Amino acid sequence: MNNASDNIPQQFEGEHTDVIHFVDCENKEKAHELFQLAKSRLKDISNWHTFSGPGSSKFSITDTKGNEDYKLAEKGDHFYINLPAPGSIAGGGLEWVRIEKIIDVEDANAESEYITMTVRPVANPRTNEGSIAHFFSHDSTSTFIVERYLNHVSAAVHGRNEVPNNTDVNIYDSVRNTIVALSARAGLSGPQWKKLVVGLLKE
After folding, report:
1. Which residue has the higher pLDDT, 19 or 130?
2. Is 66 left (phi over 0), alpha (psi -120 to 50) or beta?
């Protein structure tokens, strides 16, 4: 069986980030229960800010036209991130991504089981503009992983090819995206993802 980490895109350019949190359970059965709970939370994107706690960015899953849609995440869904920072013009004040891939391997009797979800910046689905509506470029990805190995459960976020989105956008967005991307690369996105991975595994 492939490992969850096999589903993280390769790193070619820009920066990369890795945020992970572990919980040790009494036994494999308890670990499987926590894995199932964390997996359901991972797919409940519109409540990520609730799991993350006060001060978190707001997340919301939408349909292909950008209308909020309270459902569990599936491949092809869009979702936005409302950062506590000045928003882009292209995104209507929001950062937009699309769920590119979900790999779900669940087996309570196996040594390990996992779910991975990879997202990529895209254009704002609420407009006809083609500009990527995110502070990172279309080449960047974020892969969210919940995994159980024996009686250990982990949640992680792996960012790859994190390059500022400053081409094919207006001057304001170019400057704004560069500043926000550099802030994220300087470690300001780490606390958000750390709160999320801890919240996903909270019993």
Report:
1. 19
2. left
% of residues, the chain, pLDDT over 90: 69
Residue 84 CB-density burial (10 A; 0-12 exposed, 13-18 middle, 19+ buried): exposed
What are 39's two structure tokens? 């997996």
* Cα–Cα dist 159/144, whole Å: 9
Q: Which fold has domain 17-200?
A: Alpha-D-Glucose-1,6-Bisphosphate; Chain A, domain 4 (3.30.530)
Q: How far is CA 31 from the centre of its chain?
A: 23
C-alpha dihedral sign at 178, 179, 184, 185: positive
At 188 the pLDDT is 54
- Which two structure tokens, joined as six digits, stand for 43? 């797919």
Please list the residues that pair with 121 across neighbouring strands.
97
Phi, psi of 28 (to 5 degrees): -65, -35
Is the distance from CB of 135 to CB of 177 less than 8 angstroms?
Answer: yes
For the cut 80, the answer to whether the pLDDT of residue 177 exceeds it is no
Q: How many residues are listed for the chain in this entry?
A: 203
Strand runs labelled E in 46-177: 58-62, 78-82, 95-105, 112-121, 141-149, 152-162
Query: Domain residue spans in the chain?
Result: 17-200
Give pLDDT tens digits for 26-42: 999 999 999 999 999 99
